[in-house]
Write a structure and sequence with these properties.
The protein is mostly helical. It contains 22 helices and 2 strands. Strands 1-2 form a two-stranded antiparallel sheet.
Length: 494
């Protein structure tokens, strides 16, 4: 109790509270702007932490981290342009809801789900941090390969009845992820003697092209029919009623659990958690027929999952000193600069600091909710801009976002090419989300498969001798075979 009071005293200072608010606000803005993302946001504020005391510096970084994950969902809903890869799944339900004129309600859903998912991950970090860190050490490349295959099943969920087209799109994404240097041998693949392709194709330019550019191209050509006029869309912020929340509490809990589990595994990330949660929601939801048309179940699942990652991703960072992804790598660097030595002894010798981090995360999520609620009227008012001007603004912002990732003009051409390809695919009813899924999961699946084969000396059957991997393989097979079993049982009844 004394340590908790000490932690409260440490964060209840004007400088720490200001750092929380400023960091969260900057994070939301970074997330809203396509192409920036959490890593760039943290890198931007990192120099400011050098001259700050320990707790305010950590609070600033955590605010940017959590705010940027949430902020990407706003443009995903309003403009069908995910601000970050973590929000790609949100666009699949959020934008159709905005097209119905319910952008305010969609932002209400994602803001509430993001906040609750983030608070859930804080509880997980507080109660099970060291235990989860120990469990995550049992994941070898074989388990990561099994998890990657399990995550790939979400392609079936986002293909909207066109499974063959979805699998083709997912294959395209995996092929795109393989362009560049071989992760094991270093040999160049699919570069066609192009120097620019030796570094591979970035995920952000492809997302910007597939979602933002293709959407604008289709609007210009007036090929995508059935859109609600921008002037008919409601602006503001509207929380769902309790009657609408009650049947979705299980979805919220499941998404938060998935995000907390995936976040605790080094090398995964919020985008993976979001797609897994979305797929699981579509598989189990009693309203699965509405998915792709603006179903709140999908928003609750993916937003609670990707924000639950923010807290649990700190588990391996704090308890083991192992950064799970580029975001937590930057966080780890900031902690070391502040004199914090992450590792098992941190939870023993500096428990007051751990409590302070827990409390900061709680306040950050509350502030994030307030910023979302107060800023929603501004964000949704963008929809009232005349469509020709809006299209031009989105194309300009998206181009700047694609360029700003690496400061490379080649990324702009990649985004433009992805936009043309995305418009063609969408016109012929090919889903584009599986391309993103393939690009997100492709590197993990390839690297873990090849490392696993090296560990087992080429014996693929040895993969099934690992209990955790075997369980994931069985779950994956069950998910893939269940529709066939259900169809056969329906035939027997008739």
């Amino acid at each position: 109790m004394e340590l908790l009071l000490t932690a409260v005293t440490q964060i209840a200072t004007p400088m720490t509270l200001l750092a929380i608010v400023a960091g969260t606000f900057v994070g939301v803005i970074v997330g809203v702007l396509p192409g920036l993302g959490s890593v760039l946001g943290l890198t931007m504020v990192l120099p400011f932490t050098f001259a700050m005391p320990q707790i305010p510096a950590i609070a600033l970084m955590l605010g940017v981290y959590c705010g940027s994950v949430y902020g990407g969902s706003i443009t995903a809903i309003v403009l069908n342009t995910p601000g970050t890869p973590q929000s790609a799944a949100t666009a699949m339900e959020g934008f159709p809801m905005a097209q119905r004129g319910e952008a305010d309600l969609a932002i209400g859903w994602v803001t509430a789900a993001s906040t609750l998912g983030g608070l859930f991950s804080v509880a997980v970090l507080a109660l099970a941090g060291p235990t989860l860190a120990t469990f995550s050490l049992q994941f070898t490349p074989i388990e990561y390969f099994a998890l990657g295959l399990f995550a790939m099943t979400c392609i079936a969920g986002v293909s909207s009845g066109a499974l063959a087209k979805g699998l083709m799109a997912g294959g395209i994404g995996i092929i795109l992820s393989m362009i560049g240097a071989d992760p094991v041998t270093g040999d160049l693949r699919f570069t066609f003697h192009s120097f620019q392709l030796t570094a591979g194709i970035g995920l952000i330019p492809v997302i910007v092209g597939l979602f933002a550019f293709s959407e604008m191209f289709l609007r210009v050509l007036d090929l995508d029919a059935g859109k609600t006029a921008a002037k008919d869309m409601r602006v503001g912020f509207r929380l769902p009623r309790w009657a609408d929340w009650r049947p979705r509490l299980g979805m919220l809990l499941r998404g938060s659990l998935i995000g907390s589990f995936v976040g605790a595994l080094p090398g995964t990330g919020a985008a993976t958690a979001s797609f897994i949660a979305y797929s699981e929601a579509q598989r189990t939801s009693p309203r699965r027929a509405n998915f792709g048309k603006g179903e709140a179940d999908g928003l609750v699942a993916c937003e609670s999952a990707n924000n639950a990652v923010t807290g649990s991703a700190l588990v391996p960072t704090l308890a083991l000193g192992i950064p799970g992804d580029p975001v937590t790598a930057v966080m780890l660097g900031a902690l070391v600069i502040q004199g914090v030595a992450p590792g098992p002894q941190l939870f023993v010798n500096h428990l007051d600091l751990i409590y302070a981090i827990f409390l900061v995360l709680v306040i950050v999520n509350v502030v994030m909710f307030a910023i979302g609620a107060l800023g929603a009227p501004i964000f949704t008012r963008v929809l009232r801009i005349p469509e020709p001007i809006l299209i031009g603004l989105i194309l300009i912002i998206s181009t700047v976002g694609a360029y700003g990732v690496n400061g490379n003009l080649f990324d702009v051409w990649i985004a433009f090419g992805a936009g043309v390809a995305g418009a063609i695919l969408r016109y012929f009813s090919y889903p584009v989300a599986p391309i993103v899924i393939g690009m997100v999961l492709g590197p993990t699946i390839e690297m873990s498969l090849r490392q696993g084969l090296i560990l087992t000396r080429g014996d693929a059957l040895a993969f099934f001798q690992r209990p955790i991997a075997l369980m994931l393989f069985i779950i994956t097979a069950a998910i893939l075979l269940w529709p066939l079993v259900r169809r056969l049982r329906a035939r027997e009844r008739t």
